[in-house]
Amino acid sequence: MKKATISVFILFCGLTLVACTSSEYKKHMQQGREFAEDYQLEKAASAFNKALKEKPKDEHALTELKEVEERLEKIKLEEELIKAKEAEEKKKEAEEKAKSEENNESSENDSQDLTDEEFNSWVNDLIETGDGIIISVEPYMKDDWEVTNVYVSSDFFIPSVDQQLTMVESVGPAVQEMVERSGKSPYTSVVFRYEKDDRIVAEPKLTGGYKIK
Prior knowledge:
The protein is α+β, with helices and mostly antiparallel strands. The chain is built from 5 helices and 5 strands; from the N terminus they run ααααββαβββ. The protein has 2 domains: 1-111, Serine Threonine Protein Phosphatase 5, Tetratricopeptide repeat; 116-212, GMP Synthetase, Chain A, domain 3 (2-Layer Sandwich). It has a 5-stranded mixed sheet, covered by helices on one side. A hairpin with a 5-residue loop joins strand 4 and strand 5 (210-212). Helix 1 runs antiparallel to helix 2 (41-54). The protein is rod-shaped and about 120 Å long. Keywords: Signal, TPR repeat.
């Protein structure tokens, strides 16, 4: 009788343990599926692993865990691809920026291909070959070459107006080019002035060329 009672007790405990195990297994499986549907894949994987602790090698738990792990791996690969693409784009942007800066620097160097010494030497040659007409080439204001003044002597008025026009239309563009090439100003307007009273004797027209005042 006593042995029978013990056997019944052991059977009862076994059934209780099985029931508890089955209950925990079902709970973890349900949680895993809910997490998976909600895209909380890491929590889903954890829940399925807990289910496998209750029922090791359970086919359903193993299958659903494998599906979740595959989804996680796919997401990881996609994130790595996105990061690699972003890194490549940043690298490309940096290279383009460096190239742009290099081109800008090159353009600046090209626009400043005359030293002050070379510019002054050219001005001296212009004065020497000007038959006494050109006296000096100066900025309108100190160090401000947006307007360049070419001062002329009274000899400027000896030739005809047509000859005066030919002279200023030859000298003006040449002075403008040399001022801009020297880097003194990206653009300059060249005006001819009489040295005695500073009045303008020739200036650029809006439509191009020069007009004699």
